[in-house]
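Folds abound. A case:
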Amino acid sequence: MILSINWKNFFIGEDHWAFLPEIAPRTFLMYIIILTGLRLLGKRGVRQLSVFELVVIISLGSAAGDPMFYQEIGLLIPIVIFSVIVGAYRLTTYLTAKNEKIEDLIEGKCVYLIKDGRCNTEEFDKEALALDEFFSELR
């Protein structure tokens, strides 16, 4: 039995070649939207990962998931998406390494909740962290 593979549908899916240039700006825009949204959520939702590392993980997972589940989505589209995400990640890493203001914008500023061995209660007002959560983290 010989398998008949439609190579156009295998790589492109049911979309047309004209759609490929639109994928890169859409992906980059979604990257910015996800980065902004996660930054607005604050540090509590992120914990160990930086915000833009979490964006990369979510974006790559989403890009990888659709072609696995939907036959009409070809493999070339996620490859373009992965390329844009990795490029945006590298650009973000480069910019944060070169510019402290961009680093503060993306990563946030450090807040010292313990200073000289004591709880720095003035800084708790700046963070969305309850005292019981803080003590839980200390344990």
